[in-house]
Amino acid sequence: MTVNCPSGHPSTSTDYCDVCGLPIPAGTPAGSTDPAASAAPAAAAPDTSATPAASGAAPAGQLCPNCSDAASADALFCESCGYDFTTGTMPRPASSLDLSSGPARATPPATPSAPAALAEWVVERWVDPDWYAVQQSDDPCPSPGLPTVIPLTEKSLLIGRPSRSRGISPEIDCGDDTGVSRRQAQLTTDGQRWWVEDLQSSNGTYVASAAGPLPETPIIPGQRQELNPDDRVYVGAWTRLVVRKATPEEQAGQV
């Protein structure tokens, strides 16, 4: 006695199809065909008149009863949804234990990030009462103290005051000195020497030696001026900048 599976295959087994492995509904009469299978195009039925080797045709296919995607006749699983054609069940969902077991499924170790480059140079930002005294600023001068040490990690750095609306974020922030322009000056280096260039600032950029008097003439805007090791840069109402080599302790503190 034979029965027809839902895909129309004749099967001597009454629980699973001998051809495609689909479960056969209980009570299917012998030699009968499932109505859904009867409505399928005749071309979907396998050609049993010749083997694939003899005719050169591809193996007859089957439809997945779970997602209706086509699969080859000898497929054990549906490639789309994982339906098991042999047992008629869906695959077991992966658990956290499955993901963590075995070298093939283990999470690859995180790639260590490259260490941050150490700054060989720093700039000291001071409050200079002597410079403030000759600027005649209406703003009160902050109390002088220890300098703010800023690592110089780029070859070109902006001196100025930040502005969120204009998208200005200077590397050498002089935001507390309102006499400093938003884009006051630019510091550049070749790794050994440093230059300063005024960027058409409102109050000018001044350079003078530490051993000499306070400068009275600003540098020419748009022209770079090389800084000597003992030079100081004056901007705003009270800001004095000194570019120097970083100490080992300062480099260690950057790690």
From TrEMBL:
Superkingdom to which the source organism belongs: Bacteria
Every FHA domain range: 157-207
Keyword entries, A-Z: Phosphoprotein
Full protein name: FHA domain-containing protein
SMART domains: FHA
Organism: Kribbella pratensis
Region called Disordered, residue ranges: 30-56
InterPro entries in alphabetical order: FHA_dom, SMAD_FHA_dom_sf
